[in-house]
Amino acid sequence: MLNLAKVWEIMVTKFGTFMQGVSVTLELALFTVLLGSLLGLLVAIFRRTRIWPLRILFNVYVAFIRGTPLLVQVLMIVYGLPQMGIRLPRMTLCVIALVINSGAYMAELIRAGLQSVDRGQSEAADSLGMSGAQKMIYIILPQAIKVTLPAMGNEFIAVIKESSVLYAVGVYELTYQAYKLASVNYRYLETLLDAALIYFVLTYVMTKLLGLLERRMRRSENRAD
Amino acid sequence: MKTAQTEKTVIDSGSGRDVMIEIRDLCKHFGRLEVLKGIDLNVRRGDVIVLIGPSGSGKSTLLRSVNLLEKPTSGTVKFDGCDLTKVSRRELYAMRQRMGMVFQQFNLFPHLRVLGNVTVSPRRVRGVPQAEAEKKAVELLTRVGLADKVHEYPDRLSGGQKQRVAIVRALAMDPEVMLFDEPTSALDPEMVGEVLDVMKQLAADGMTMMVVTHEMRFARQVADYVLFLDDGKIVEAGTPEEIFDHPQQPRTQDFLRKVL
Questions:
Q1: Nearest-CA neighbor of A43 among A62, A24, A70?
Q2: Tens digits of per-residue pLDDT, A200-219?
Q3: Which of 1.10.1610.10, 3.40.190.170, 1.10.3720.10, 1.20.1250.20 would CATH assign to domain A4-224?
Q4: Which of B121, B152, B158, B210 to mutate to test the interface with A (most CBs of A within 10 A)?
Q5: pLDDT above 90 coverage of chain A, percent
Q6: ipTM of the modeled complex
Q7: Chain A contact for B89 (CB, 8 A cutoff)
Q8: Alpha carbon distances (Å) from A156 to A119, A208, B217, B255
Q9: B chain contacts of residue A114, beta-carbon cutoff 8 Å
Q10: Which of A56, A96, A102, A108 might form a disulfide with A36, Cβ 3.0–4.6 angstroms?
Q11: What is the mean pLDDT of chain A?
């Protein structure tokens, strides 16, 4: 049976261990989202250009990543790159795997953002003599990013949760820490429930923060009030 | 052109000055739909050309072909002697800087304040220093009565104000010709006047203009030359007096009866 007292006890006594896991998880998520958005941005932009080899390459990339399991991708990168002679710290390999994964999803989000910008904006920029790059940088992208920002926030939350698959390659993130504790104290249910609670608090707080940010952005848009 | 009866005539806006825009045998198809069926037109420097005609007649497409927002299916569009259908992309960008355009839906940049809307192109495309670009922007905005709106975002402006900003945004690039694509069609009636006033002033200052509009009074007052388009062709062309008072073609007569 689930022992609620144990849930509490483990949380309190092993709080430090959990927090080490949290810090690794957040670090992973932060790097992944920052680098993933850059990758996604690049991919989204080049999928729109006339450079067709890049377009095909990036289309295949997005389709492949979205159509295969994250765990398989992680295993391929974390064990595959060293096999190819690319020696990097485990943590770096994990970030690479997550960035490659997240970049594909970000590319889709940003693409939707780019598509949401009215055609008239592009025509107005054209009529002013802007080049394709100028138009993208000064007119289209700022508007697309604004539309995409909330979805990027959700991606951050998703990565916090999904990074738990890294437990499989022995990175000391939250899930791994909890599993390790449980395999010593044999309180799997209680210990992993603690981990779940911590994940929940993280994502819940993040959701609320994002909601706040979004409302503030909307308010700055209609500064009538 | 394969018109058997009528020999090919180039419509010419006719004042004695040099030809700025030279359109020859311009055709535009959207899939199977033929929107323009062979347009021949000279627009001379300083002239105000007004394009009228029923919706779907191709007048907007013709206007948008001048700065190649629409790529012609065949034919040539020359600006200042340079064939825009043949130039490199870079040259096209340079040519477009010399042509201003105003859209029915304004198309202001919503993420930029009025000042940013007007200065973004001079600064980013021409490399004009910020202070200089802003000084000129404020000057132009003051001229159209929007000095107090400089720091507003577009969504805080009325339709008429938006369109005046859009005109100023185009003027900030010192264009040699201004293209107006139904500039008052999306406006509430009480705001049409303020936009037309700005356009009249521009015309009085000698700006070369091509205007697609349903404002027949404006056409009569301001146009040097009126083109009536129907079914992808210029059906009739002439001075406002010729077109509005003595239309020769039955289709022109029919159209004017409906709109006047």
A1: A62
A2: 999 999 999 999 988 887 77
A3: 1.10.3720.10
A4: B121
A5: 83
A6: 0.93
A7: yes
A8: 30, 13, 58, 59
A9: none
A10: A102
A11: 92
